[in-house]
Amino acid sequence: MALDQHSLDFLAAAAAAAGPDATPMHQQSPEEARLGALASIDAIGPGPEVHSAEDIQLRSSDDADEFTIRVLKPSENPEGVFLYIHGGGWVVSDIAAYDAIGRQLAVDTGHTVVLVNYRKAPEAPFPAPVDDCWTALNWIDINREQLAAPGTPLIVGGDSAGGNLTAAMTLRARDAGGPKIDLQVLIYPVTDADFTRESYLAEVNQTLLTTESMQWFWDHYAPLDQRSHQEAAPLQAESLAGLPEAYLVVAEHDVLRDEGEAYGQRLAAEGVQVDSHVFPGQMHGFISFFNILPAGNQLVDMISAKLRSHSNQLAGASEEV
């Protein structure tokens, strides 16, 4: 189906606000693109109140700059921990832009949500964002009993580049023998750097994320000789066996649709349980505007239901042992 009317209206309003002389992202500097991304914070608005919110500074290595994680606890007794990794092509956006959705997910899922403000390319290219997310994941594992009750699940998820980094976390954790990730939530993830796929070529898919802007993101993030590394392009991994259950969402009109679906198909073929959803009539980035676009709000509800169901299943299994 065509782009839904809510998306068309949103794009028209965004174009009108930007003006006729707006410079496309792929022609901007990273600094200019980041300034443009800040405008989305006002559009999204604040999220709900949570039980507690705390920023913590971490460092991936002695010679690396510090980065911030934000811990959002919905109650005194959360049902689990959800590490949510934000999108933005590894170049733009931050936890301030994702604070509202982090709070909404914390309240709706009953899980402590941890947002990670990983270092950004091109100043900190691949694998720096992967290393920062890995540091955050291990910090959560070590401090899990302060974040939720003992034995509660650890879930990792993210959208777009955050989905890419989520997949990288599951691969690194599998190969390192832990931490144990109970569920991965992949929201229109970047899984490859092949711009010849049909979804990249379709004109109707050139919305908030265009083929040219995705090429721009990759050029800032990783040189050509690193784009086959499994932690940069998870679809290039030799094996996807042994990864945690996946909850996968793609948008019909997204340049990333084909690689997201291909990743889900490979996961399933290699024995991983996959719960896949295609959102018809939707464009890339729709969850970021969950309080503007009805489909974004619907997806937050679906993810929340999945996390609560998954946590209840794990709790039931633990009681039976």
From TrEMBL:
<dbReference type="InterPro" id="IPR050300">
    <property type="entry name" value="GDXG_lipolytic_enzyme"/>
</dbReference>
<feature type="domain" description="Alpha/beta hydrolase fold-3">
    <location>
        <begin position="83"/>
        <end position="287"/>
    </location>
</feature>
<keyword id="KW-0378">Hydrolase</keyword>
<protein>
    <submittedName>
        <fullName>Putative 6-hexanolide hydrolase</fullName>
    </submittedName>
</protein>
<comment type="similarity">
    <text>Belongs to the 'GDXG' lipolytic enzyme family.</text>
</comment>
<dbReference type="InterPro" id="IPR013094">
    <property type="entry name" value="AB_hydrolase_3"/>
</dbReference>
<dbReference type="InterPro" id="IPR002168">
    <property type="entry name" value="Lipase_GDXG_HIS_AS"/>
</dbReference>
<dbReference type="GO" id="GO:0016787">
    <property type="term" value="F:hydrolase activity"/>
</dbReference>
<dbReference type="InterPro" id="IPR029058">
    <property type="entry name" value="AB_hydrolase_fold"/>
</dbReference>
<dbReference type="Pfam" id="PF07859">
    <property type="entry name" value="Abhydrolase_3"/>
</dbReference>
